[in-house]
Amino acid sequence: MSGLFSALGSFWTWFQYAFDPLCGPAGLFTLFGSSSIVACGATGWGDEIAFGVKVTVTLSLATLPIGLLLGFAVALAMQSEEKTLRVAGGIYTTIFRGLPELLTLFIVYYGVQMGIQSILAWFGNEQRIEINAFVAGMIALSVVFSSYCSEVLLSAFRAIPKGQYEAGDSLGFHRARTMRLIILPQLIRIALPGLGNLWMNLLKDTALVSVIGLSDILRQTGIAAKVSKEPFFFYLLACALFLALAMLSSIGISAIDRWSNRAGGRR
Known about the structure:
The model has no long low-confidence stretch (mean pLDDT 84). The chain folds into 2 domains: 63-214, MetI-like (MetI-like fold, Orthogonal Bundle), CATH 1.10.3720.10; 217-261. The protein is mainly alpha-helical. 78% of the residues lie in helices and 0% in strands. It is globular and about 70 Å long. It contains 10 helices and no strands. Keywords: Cell inner membrane, Cell membrane, Membrane, Transmembrane, Transmembrane helix, Transport. One of its GO terms (molecular function) is transmembrane transporter activity.
């Protein structure tokens, strides 16, 4: 069994290298040659910047589903008939839309550490706790994303006629089934443009995690700029990388939009 896992690990390592768009055999940085300042390997900064791109993309993709689920839950609370849930949802969105994203990140990164240490100290444990920078960034960006996402989804919910819910009731559907089969497909089509904009903002906001030591695009290019004394080149490279991610995202969002419209047409 250990041999199988070792073989799978080796294959995954080869797969990542072979299809790496920056430092793979046909990667962008590889094409510049070994003498370039962005060469992959010991002679350039290609490997470090490629790792930063992976961290940025991974953080964004890890944050997206959490933010969507939180935003959906808050949107449901804000249109609930229960006043307490509506007030709680309004307070949540007001706080995290009103606070600067960087401040939210600091509160999560330092506040969670202090909270855990206080709890441990209450039990007589004086051990120092340090929260992982990736986890802190994911939590902070998730709550910020969800606060904006909830407003987009709430507007989409309000755009769906109440007759759609009544149609589900008349068919004998439970409310959860009505939501899954009737409401959610319409919700996705209506909210997709707004959610696409929020995804673009999320990609940009990942640059904030560089201040807590996470090796994203901005941190890696910043280190390369200081060491190489070529700040304009490396920050211009960071711009190009973020723009490339934005363009790929636009293509993906357009494809999802076309698919959702075709699916809606078939219904």
